[in-house]
Amino acid sequence: MTGRRRGSGEGSIYRRADGKWVAMLDLGWENGKRRRRAVYGKTRAEVAAKLKELHRAQEDGVNLAAKPRTLAEWLDEWLNDIKAKDGTRPSTLDRYRLVVRLDLVPALGKIRVDKLTVRDVQRFLTAKGETSSPGGVAKIHAVLRAALSDAVRFELVSRNVAKSVKLPSSAAAERRVPTPEEIRQLFTAAEGDRLGEVFRLAVLLGLRRGELLGLRWTDVDLENRFLVVRTTIQRSGGQLRVAEPKTRRSARRIRLSQSAVRAFERQRIRQAKERLAAGSAWQDQGWVFASQIGTPTEPRNLNRRFDQIRHAAGLDWLHLHDLRHACGTYLIAEGVDLRTVMEVLGHSTFRLTMDTYAHVLDGQLHTAADAMDRAFGED
Question: Would the keyword DNA-binding be found if you checked this record's keyword annotation (predicted)?
């Protein structure tokens, strides 16, 4: 090597025999070995600038001694060594893996995690918004943001670039809410079906699919008209799992309407007949909405049956989760306060309830404004 030079505060910069410039940053000793980080360039000014960036990253707390990783490598490590061991629900982990495999790795996986820029992420999400729903883009963004937050925590990067991007407008994502008349059409189509009461109670109680299937008869007190959400049924890792509710607030006590009580009573009668028909094959596990031999109902079977019933009702656009959304919408429209709606639905935050039902609240605000005009004689 030739032409060793060092400017003030720059660190070690020199020119190799082949003409390429090198800047070397000393990272100290680790496990008895001296660690250094090198950058290369065609000119001395170029490597001096790169060395300055290394100094800045070091000051920001980035662990420069860590092995450089591509985003794909970091996401794999994040899923298998961090999220799989920190109590993340298996179903949530499955969703993360799907987003990583189908969306993040193909588009951004080859970029080094410490070289990923706001522009990289913004261009990716903007392009994704042209083919995916705003809600789908938001889920992809949430997974990347969570992964990069842990990268900051482990000192692999100095900041989370995913936090600085602007998501595509979600105005078009507002879901259609079924009218009471359309819900009655659905109930008529489901009448007499062995799973019909699930769909009725999804509207009356606002429970999630897994919460409905996770109800045991010991969770339901028809005499005193309440139930307690304690468990959910989910398919994860290729098998059915009995899990705790989605969040701390998801584990909740719900008051039952008379309509809900009658739905549970009909389900109890129906299940008693199925128990007799199954005979010795019946496995008494206590599920309210059990299979025909007493075992947990497969969530995908519930979805398939719902698809058949909504088609029979002429409601092909309707999704099972829309029934939960309908519950919240009807409660607010009937004047139930937002805090109570939050408790009924088991939302994790008040903000989530407000954002989800902004369209209903806007109508109530208009009603409130009109009421003030009437009170003070304004037309």
Answer: yes
